[in-house]
Amino acid sequence: MQNFLFQHLLQPALFGLPPEIAHNATILATRLGLAGGKGVLNNPRLRQELWGLTFPNPIGLAAGFDKHGECVSPLFNMGFGAVELGSVTPLPQPGNPRPRVFRDIAAGAIINRYGFPSVGVEKFVRRVRRVRAFTPLPGILGINLGKNKNQEDPIADYLTGMRATHKIADYWVINVSSPNTPGLRSLQERGTLTELMAAAQSLQNEIAPHVPLLLKIAPDLSDELLADIVSVAMARNLQGLVVSNTTITRPAGINTEFAAEAGGLSGKPLMNLSTRMLREVRRATDGKIPLIGVGGIDSAETAYAKIRAGASLVQLYSGLVYAGPGLIPQMFQGLLDLMARDGFANISEAVGQA
Questions:
Q1: What are phi and psi of 192, to 5 degrees?
Q2: Residue 133 half-sphere exposure, CB side, CA atoms within 13 Å?
């Protein structure tokens, strides 16, 4: 019934609106509890322990959906085992000029050039703290950290974000891979990344050693840049990598006018590229660093493909736009069925089996 209502009533109405207005309407509806759901989906066969945290299931919401920390509890009610908020920047900023979000419905793709619009970390933390003050969250809450557009010392911004959020975050993600903030992706280069991660880990050890620190990378890295990132990750014993952000490439099969828009592409056409990158990172790290697989997930089968390629956890966003909240329980049951087919007692046994 939930899928029927979404596909035949809500989705046509939302797709009749400009994408950003539709997104804002979705956030409002989610805040009001209209997305439905019965709480975090939990099953011992899908439960995992990572970084000292218990993930009730491996299905997470990617950063970018709830940028401002507006609907934490309703998102967990949809069934997600983990929700990643943000990206949040230290100071409020409007992001890039509108229009900045575009859909190719036939291809199941989205291009965005938001540029980290943010209410600022102070307001963000107040919102999330109010939620966490009343009751323990039923799942894991990640905070995705970005930098302000005009900040000339990006490392300072990430450290500011960590200091402000260390009491509300179950884990942090350092986002250096969005294509929509000038110069951000250059932070993935070996020297700068080493300096950034050294500073972040030093602060982590000082204020919150129990909060894992992860790094989110791009899907369209050169072989040399990927080797540099892996080298830094291994040398610094990085706790996790999120693979991957949106792509600046334009895979075949998408609308030409849509493809001409600047920004990062997500959704179904990103699946092959991001999964190939995930597999390469898994191989290069020899499975020693837990990975979160993101990009193109819209079913249990695509989530399972990410897991078999090396992801311990998966995240989606665009798939939710096109399939609606009923996708989460479908994926949950589908993963259990796929595991039963392949004889796995726990989802962790499937990680990297491809």
A1: -65, -40
A2: 6
Q: Does CATH place domain 35-350 in 3.20.20.70?
A: yes
Delimit the domains of the chain by residue range: 35-350
CB-based contact 56:42 (threshold 8 Å): yes
Annotated catalytic residue 244: no
pLDDT digits (tens, 9 = 90+) for 37-95: 999 999 999 999 999 999 999 999 999 999 999 999 999 999 999 999 999 999 999 99
Residues 72, 133: Cα–Cα separation, whole Å: 13
Q: At 135, is the pLDDT very low, low, confident or very high (cuts 50, 70, 90)?
A: confident
Distance CA 346, CA 350 (A): 8
pTM over 0.85: yes
Residue-level pLDDT at 281 = 98
Please calculate the CA angle 61-67-72 and round it to the nearest 5 degrees.
60
- At 223, which helix (H) or strand (E)? helix 223-235
Mean pLDDT value across residues 219-231: 96
The catalytic position among 87, 118, 177, 178 is 178
* Closest CA relative to residue 120, chosen from 142, 99, 95, 140: 95
User: CB pairs under 8 A, 24+ apart, for 3-7?
Assistant: 3/323, 3/324, 3/326, 3/330, 6/323, 6/324, 6/325, 6/326, 7/324
pLDDT tens column, 96-111: 999 999 999 999 999 9
Distances from the Cα of 77 to the Cαs of 83, 182, 297, 335, in angstroms? Answer: 11, 36, 20, 19
